Amino acid sequence: MVTFKASTTELLHSLQADISANRLVLPMPPDLALRARSLIADPDCSINTLADLISTDATLSARLLKVVNSTAYSGREPIHTISGAITRLGLQLVQSLINQLSLLQSIYQYDTQTRRWLREPVRQSQAVGVWAAALAMQQTKLNPEEAMLSGLIHNIGALPVLARLARRHGTRTSADEAIAIARTLHQKVGIHILQQWHFPPHMLQIIEHQRNPAYGPGQATHYTDLVIAALALFEVEEERLNADQAERLLAFSKLGITPQQALDCAELAESRQAYAERF
Question: Are residues 157 and 265 in the same domain?
Answer without folding.
Answer: yes
